[in-house]
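As described in the Methods, two query proteins were run sequentially through the folding procedure within a single session, without resetting any intermediate state between them. The first query and its resulting structure tokens are shown here.
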Amino acid sequence: MKASELSKNISVDAKFDVPDLVWFDVKDAPFVVSGVYYDEEQKCYTRMPDSIAKNVSPNVRGLVHDTAGGRVRFRTDSTFIGMYAIMSDGTRTVEPSHSCFDIQRRNPDFEYLKQDTFLYSFIPPITIHRGFSAQVTTDGYMEDYTLHMPTQSPVKELYIAVKADAELLEPTPYKHPKPIVYYGSSITQGAGSSRPANTYQAIISKHLSTEYYNLGFGGSAMGEQAMADYIAGLDMSIFVCDYDHNASGAEHLMATHLPFYRTVRNAHPDLPIVFITAPNTMPWYTWYQPRRDAIYNTYKTAIAEGDKNVYFIDGDTLFGDIDKDLCTVDTCHPTDLGIYRMALTIEEVLSKILNK
């Protein structure tokens, strides 16, 4: 349908020198919002209910409004796409990736666009006052677009503009529409990635066409029972448990990891569950092995109890063997190279599960 026929005559405080534009609130059809939802009470996008987050920890409650994993998907042949985002006033983080939006496109008619492919980054100014606008021109082919939200910034409102005479449709559905749920640390949330579409979950989704939820909470994924209870209540295709880095030590993992698994397993008897240990970036790190053993103990216990749907990924394998030192920013958070290698290693396991 033509964008002009779908228009609700929304007025947005963005000035583009382009005629015949119509604006849409992404909460409205035919746009599809994935990975986050709009909290009417808080008036912002969020990754989980505030009432639950506050029972996990104050830090998690503060991080749920970071829109890691949030995506807006749509299909259009518009030669112009504009965006206006209302975010928190103030100064954005030092890393543009934490606050920027990424737009990707896909068009099966072209070999180089058969999967989601980077088109442009919308980077906010250093100081944000109410919101910011950005734009990109396209070649006018009918294509699927995915706008990735920032990994470490809140988004209050989000609007998209297209040409009035353009077709505007629902996006092509994911091949695997039931989400993979990832729970973990700042690495899971996307710290270190240069763009929000470069998180390991986004790369896996790009390759396998999967819906996903990013429940990564920088410095705050402690395996709390309240979080286990929340995740156990989600409808998901696979659960990826990746919170090793935030646990205070092997003792903490021994105390929380197995109960966390059992909470999810009791709610989902047949759900594939994948355990991942922290990337071991330096061979002399003595803390790595005891933590790895604590998580492996959960895996061994599950197998011994007859669970045939658990999987274990050793963090020592995530970055490969060549130029491992290039894979992190700070010996902890991965660079884009490290994230890409993580994605390929994890994807290999998830692909086998999805294609059973």
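Immediately afterward, the second query was submitted; its sequence and tokens are:
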Amino acid sequence: MAVNIGRGTTLPGYRVLLLLFVLQQTICSACFGDEIRVAAASNFRLAMSSLAANFERDTGHEVLLIFGSTGKHYAQIIHGAPFDAFFAADSERPARLEQNGLAVPATRFTYARGQLVLFRPGDSALPLDEKYLQEGNYRYLAIANPALAPYGKAALQVLESLGLRESLKQRLVMGENVGQAYQFVFSGNAELGFVARSQLDQQAELTGARYWLVPAGLHQPIDQQAVLLKDTPAARDFMLYVRSDKAITVILEHGYLTP
């Protein structure tokens, strides 16, 4: 069988079928997006989930989010974890990856500046501030592990700045990441804790929770940086999207500052 394709030219039927198959595959590739694997700091869970959902809706790509401590993600990347992008809670580890040739050059940027808060659930009328922390009318204080989580490192710097590190070291309850530190407080295993401002959602505020926004001068800036690990069009598009005005609005709404 031959099929006429114009001006007297004919092609065998199987070649026509092959052309139709290639055309179908091209159309399908345009209709269905790629999957991006993103390692993200646990403090950025709510904001990142919103950003990923918006990006998926606008582009058709799928964003697979893996949340955890920045230190743990860093170790996984060094050992070959198949992430396309890394959204850390600090600037140190993305810079190391870049210096060691494990990240795409010139793709590192600061996507947010975190705010540290001292958080206490419940409806106590007592104000939560530096004085309350110093008076020590509590048994346990939750923080993230300073060796793994930048928010834990900042919390330790606050205690050092206030001269409380030694006096409170027996009361510290450490979570692997700032998400676990928040859960320690919210579940009652610790009366209060240092967490990210972004974690205090509307539900926590409606239940009477109190928090003290820690003055920036008591700890080093929490500049959260991202870096591209695998150079694919979809991953690059996502990194560009996170820097867009639309994405910055979402980041600000979730309790972060922007550079």
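The CA atoms of residues 100 and 106 lie 13 Å apart. We note this only descriptively and draw no conclusion about the first query from it.
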